[in-house]
């Protein structure tokens, strides 16, 4: 069971400053999760952690800054870097986002041992190609192993589309081998998830077998890539293509212009992250990728965030959920009380400042229904984070 988050800032700071309780042979893996806004990065982070510490909402830019989650299992520590969605300066300006929203995902990449690229396959506008920002990010750090994670597979009515998406998002190459994918869904089309994708990877011609995997020309590879649906073909065991010393190729802006996918993914996983299906498979894979190294955190730490930050984020998540369009982005949160009650319960009072009276009416709702629903749902989430009773009171005022 994952540990609860400390309810006081002092206790959380002490935990974060504590020397990690190193096991005999510690292993560690730093994981950056990147993707377009709203791909489900925070939901996946929460699933991997086993407790909800990152805010989640249908609206874009719920995650405002990078935060770390810590999974400690036996002798291994996974450090999950939950990042804001990769966005452009133009969109950042439109949503009044901090400068950090543009730089944080890039900073995370500098510290990562592995990158998970999350794609929401239920979004038919964005699923067919990786965004320019994601491709740019991958091309800047080609030495970091990357894994493609197709999320929200359960929402995809036509499962056969997954094979087309995989081919497009990988440029027909996974782990340096050309893809010959066969449907994992043919026997039971209603089956929601299979992970990782069953793929037969055709071995590259002898002369190219030892080239670095990112150097193999993607257009040549795609000519030979075929999606194989025959029932009797088995996914063959394929050996890794060995990397030579010169390392993977750097793709320049001109290459990226013509690319829809990334030809250097090592693995593909398919998830329904909201329901936690197949997340355990991914978690086991990540634990296996960990390398010998000292732990960064004490095993009692679940996240690097302070209790107040978690509280602010969870309340903001609910405001984003219940208020229309751009309205929630203008709300300022001020914590007026944070103390322990007589029976060990946590008493929190927060003031929500809005720019206009009309916004105040929306946030309160008819008969106070909206604000009480936000308080109730946020309070429930906070109980699950801190594992204690939480009494949350919210007030709304027009900021003077």
TrEMBL record:
- Region annotation G2: where it falls in the sequence: 61-65
* Region (G4), start-end ranges: 151-154
Q: Where is this region: G1?
A: 35-42
Q: Where is this region: G3?
A: 82-85
Keywords, ordered alphabetically: GTP-binding, Membrane, Mitochondrion, Mitochondrion inner membrane, Nucleotide-binding, Ribosome biogenesis, RNA-binding, rRNA-binding, Transit peptide
- Record's PROSITE patterns? G_ERA (PS51713)
List residues traversing the bilayer: none
Q: Report the protein name in the record.
A: GTPase Era, mitochondrial
Tell me the organism. Fulmarus glacialis
């Amino acid at each position: 069971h994952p540990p609860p988050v400390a309810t006081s800032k002092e206790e959380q700071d002490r935990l974060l400053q504590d020397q990690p309780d190193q096991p005999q042979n510690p292993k560690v893996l730093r994981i950056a999760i990147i993707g377009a806004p709203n791909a489900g990065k925070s939901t996946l982070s929460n699933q991997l952690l086993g407790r909800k510490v990152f805010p989640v909402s249908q609206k874009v830019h719920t995650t405002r800054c990078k935060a770390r989650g810590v999974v400690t299992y036996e002798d291994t520590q996974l450090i999950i870097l939950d990042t804001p969605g990769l966005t452009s300066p133009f969109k950042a300006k439109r949503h009044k986002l901090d400068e950090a929203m543009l730089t944080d995902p890039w900073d995370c990449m500098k510290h990562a041992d592995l990158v998970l690229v999350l794609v929401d396959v239920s979004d038919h506008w964005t699923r067919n190609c990786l965004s320019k920002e994601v491709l740019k990010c991958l091309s800047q750090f080609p030495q970091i192993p990357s894994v493609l994670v197709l999320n929200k597979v359960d929402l995809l009515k036509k499962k056969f589309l997954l094979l087309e998406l995989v081919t497009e998002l990988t440029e027909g190459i996974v782990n340096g081998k050309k893809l010959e994918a066969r449907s994992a869904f043919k026997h039971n089309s209603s089956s929601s998830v299979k992970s990782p994708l069953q793929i037969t990877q055709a071995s590259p011609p002898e002369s190219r077998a030892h080239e670095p995997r990112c150097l193999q020309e993607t257009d040549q590879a795609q000519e030979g890539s075929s999606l194989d649906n025959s029932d009797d073909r088995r996914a063959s065991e394929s050996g890794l293509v060995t990397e030579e010393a010169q390392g993977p190729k750097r793709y320049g802006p001109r290459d990226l212009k013509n690319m829809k996918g990334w030809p250097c993914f090592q693995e593909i996983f398919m998830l329904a992250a909201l329901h936690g299906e197949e997340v355990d498979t991914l978690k086991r894979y990540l634990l296996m990728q960990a390398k010998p190294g000292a732990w960064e955190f004490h095993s009692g730490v679940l996240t690097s965030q302070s209790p107040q930050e978690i509280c602010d984020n969870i309340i903001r998540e609910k405001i984003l959920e219940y208020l229309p369009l751009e309205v929630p982005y203008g709300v300022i949160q001020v914590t007026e009380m944070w103390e322990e009650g007589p029976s060990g319960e946590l008493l929190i009072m927060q003031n929500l400042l809005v720019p206009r009276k009309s916004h105040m009416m929306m946030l309160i709702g008819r008969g106070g229904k909206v604000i009480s629903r936000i308080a109730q749902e946020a309070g429930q989430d906070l109980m699950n984070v801190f594992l204690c009773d939480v009494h949350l009171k919210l007030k709304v005022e027009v900021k003077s």
